[in-house]
Amino acid sequence: MNSETLSFLITWTPFLLQGFMWNIFIAICAVTLGSLLGAGLAWLRVRKSGAIATAAEQLSTFFRGVPTLALIFYAVFVLPTEFSLGSTVVHIPQWSKAVIGLAAAPLSFTSESLVVAYRAWQRGDIGAALLFIPTWINVFLISFVASSASSLVGVSELVSRCNTVIAATGTSVMVPVYLYCSLYFVLTSLLFTFLIRRFKDSAFMAGVHARLTQQTCRN
Which of 20, 82, 131, 186 is the most exposed place for a label (fewest CB within 10 A)? Predict the structure, then answer.
């Protein structure tokens, strides 16, 4: 990479970083929404029986099999762009629809994993139950990378802004701009992977495991 290209990328970095913040924001919102809904489905599956538990399990399976991009487009084209609340018109932003589409994967994961963790807890396998925590963090990482798909529905995130830079300055910078964009995702993914491993091997997790195991044995 020559100095001219490097200077070009540095110049556009603040603009691209703003888009990258949108990727993080959308991923956090999607994982939060999906995890809450998935926890609700998991609760129905372990606390209820009959048709309710079956419906919750089938709903979890359904969202596991639907492509994320299809759900994003479905949310964009089916949900309204605005609605009236009395005399006030409330506009629904595109990013919120991307969040709804991206929430499907963490919803399904949370539902399935919490059921597995609950059953492991019931049989006294505390280690297997606690694996839910680091693997749930991996779900955020997957949703974070998948958030780039929101550029296809008009969200001004990192990939969308890369396209804007290329359109404004010419296709000659396409390769370095996309490579630079990829570095954001790769470096963040590596950082999260490192933190997850440190968390799994930390004294805190070992202490939690030991305390919970002792409590289970006493009960």
Answer: 82
**Best CA proximity match to 31, nearest among 104, 97, 117, 111:** 104
State mean pLDDT over 157-167. 91
Residue 18 neighbours by CB distance under 10 Å: 13
- Whose CA is closest to 101, among 53, 42, 154, 158? 154
In contact, 212 and 130? CB cutoff 8 Å: yes
pTM: 0.84
b vs e for 133-147, b when ≥16 Cβ sit within 10 Å of the residue's Cβ? Answer: ebebbebbbbbbebb
- Round to whole Å and give the CA distance between 88 and 173: 45
Separation of alpha carbons 114 and 133, rounded Å: 10
Considering the chain, what is the average pLDDT of its residues? Answer: 84
